[in-house]
Amino acid sequence: MSQNSSDSHSAGKLKTGVLTFPGVLMQGVTSIAPAIAGMFTLAFIASNAGRATPLAFAGAFVIALFLGYTLAQYTRHLSATGSYFTFVSRSLGGRTGFLVAWVYLLFYPIVVAQVGSFMGDTLQSTLKSVYNVNFPWWIFMAFLIALCAWAGYKGLELSVKLIIIAGVIEFVIVLLVGLTGFIKPGTGGVSLGVFNPSNAPSAHGLFLGVVFAIFAISGWDAAAPLAEETADPKRQIPRAVLGSILILGFFLIFVSWGQISAFNSVDDVVKAKQLPAFIIGQQHWGHLWWLILIALLNSAIAVALAVTSAANRFIYGMAKAGALPKALTKVDHKSGTPINVLWTQTGLNIFLGLVLPLIIGVANVYNLTGTWFTLALAPVYIVANIGLPIFYRKEHPTEFSVLKHVIIPSIGSLALIIVVYYSVNPLPAWPIGLAPFIVLGWLAIGIIVLFTAFSGSKAKMLERAGDAMM
Predict the structure, then answer these.
(1) Can you give the pTM of this predicted structure?
(2) Is the pLDDT of residue 294 over 50?
(3) Domain 3-467: which CATH number of 3.40.50.300, 1.20.1740.10, 3.40.30.10, 3.30.70.20
(4) Which helix H or strand E contains 376, and what residues bound it?
């Protein structure tokens, strides 16, 4: 490392150019979490979408492509740790950018607590039922929080190396689970009927299934906050965003179709006392079924590491622009890690990872947070879509295209509005029904913060938010 680079770290700047395309692509892929998205979400989506579960994944895939295209258009010109905070601030102003970022905080900073609770609960129930071993769920939670803190402290390069290894392992194993369902299907065989909307219990159920499938495929935007540490970011980040959506979109349709096909009826999937993938493994893989458990462990670890990196950079970007306390811009001289953000994130993981499961029950954490993630991300994506044509007309008029910057983002926004509306009307049962109120409550707090903390002369600070980039 050159002397200039070292000095820049002490001044509060991240390392530059330490990530190449494979690393930033896997950042997006593992943030989607192939094993968790492909296996753990299946029963909940099937309970709403029925046999049309693969259709719900297909719908989420198409919507994600439209949304990812918008993000790719921003990242062609803006390389920022602040991601949507910077993009929306640049196009629609700092106040709007702050509110978007505030709602976005309901996503990445919460994921470690979510996957730690679900994986801990899965380990506890599986080891108890199969081996009669009592494994308290909170032990895995504590391990995951400690691992994320350690890897984050050591630096981004270590985290990326770990997620590449873990990501490849989980991807291959889950692919084999889906393939098993096609080779050894249940009495209904393999049918294209899974893509027929009439095979869903109701339109409301299908829409709610799509909402949760959108959550399952969410994470593709995790590459954007790493732009300042990526070599040639204006080329590599858009490729990583769209590449991760394409890879995981087809992947999730395939493995959900395979798993649904492996059972005699969708009720067998919904009412299974274990994960459907575990049942497939135990029936057809023999003693090697535990590889599926390994895939889930890999997925939980990889997604936790990936989102910790993304959350730390996103919060750092907000702080650098003055939207959060300046202390959060401190960067460790050796590792290039936003160190105060890391400790803040670790404290949040401890609080949410241990308190939230006690309030609503550890088994409910995953589905509740997964639903509120989608409901929180929807306005973020829609506002970014609105800002895209303004950004291009204002700053890159010669590149402006009605198709690219108006029609495609509008389709993505309209699809999101329809899906979200019909998923909350009527409200889902408790505790999932709490999700929209959590998002609205958090937004209300953000509005109060905006008009109290950023009034008078401080309001000008937010107007510079769009400049917080390379």
Answers:
(1) 0.86
(2) yes
(3) 1.20.1740.10
(4) helix 362-395
